[in-house]
Amino acid sequence: MTIWLEAGLWGLLAGSALVLGAAIAWSVRVPQRVVAGVMAFGAGVLISALAFDLVDEAESTGGLWPTLAGFIAGAIAYVVCNLALARRGAQHRKRSAAMMPSEQEAPGSGAAIAVGALLDGVPESVVLGVSLLGGGGVGVSVLAAIVVSNVPEGLSSAAGMKASGRSARYVFGVWSTIALACGLAGLMGAALLDGAAPETLAVITAVAAGAMLAMVADTMIPEAFEGTQIYAGLIASLGFAVAFAIGRA
Fold it and tell me: Per-residue pLDDT averaged across 8-19, rounded?
């Protein structure tokens, strides 16, 4: 199997975790506190993977300054895009409570929510594609972190979509499309960057890492804290510890 095809399949697997979360939310009423707890755990998992795998690997591959430049650029790009989407009604796209506006309340918010979900998911899959280029296989700890965080993301967001009156066709159409886009992002990441200079790989990895950290802080942590309050930090720390252990195992 070619590297780019394998990368696409890993990206699709990671994106499919969003669909799984959405299916759980649509078929079972999950208490908001449980959703928030899993979201806090997923945030800790992602932060660990960012710190000990992505950023560390980028710095080892391409040096400190390309890594820092890419990381900051990724965070800025995410925040700028997120601000634009927030003005169109997508600021609460990860919230499980009835905070998302309906299409009647904010025309165009459905499309903004879909684009926002794409913005959240694509950098993760690009990283999976790039991780295969070193010849050592997919980064297991990064893949585990993405899957573990994607399930509560899909669950929380789908619960919010359902509460705002959006149909099952819309909800599963969004997440299925995002899953396919994640597969394509992983494929493109491997295909376009195969043979790239180490500095280029470091910058791309760091850009994705910066965007992912901004996403965690902007969308996952607020939902986690709202539902778990004082326990959010402890649960996130447990997620961090689990991901760290997986990476060192």
Answer: 92
Instruction: Give the angle 207-208-213 at the CA atoms, nearest 5°.
Output: 100
Burial class (CB in 10 A: 0-12, 13-18, 19+), 229: exposed
pLDDT in tens, 131-143: 787 666 667 778 8
Q: Which amino acid is at 213?
A: L
Query: Do residues 62 and 99 make contact, with C-beta atoms less than 8 angstroms apart?
Result: no
Helix ranges, the chain (H): 3-27, 32-49, 55-62, 64-86, 109-131, 140-163, 168-193, 198-215, 221-228, 232-248
Q: Look at residue 105 and tell me whether its pLDDT is greater than 80.
A: no
| Residue type, position 60, single letter | S
pLDDT for res 93: 58
| Among the listed residues 138, 116, 141, 114, the one whose alpha carbon sits nearest the alpha carbon of residue 126 | 138
**Looking at the predicted structure, is the pLDDT value of residue 120 above 80?**
no
Residue 162 · residue 171 · CB < 8 Å = yes
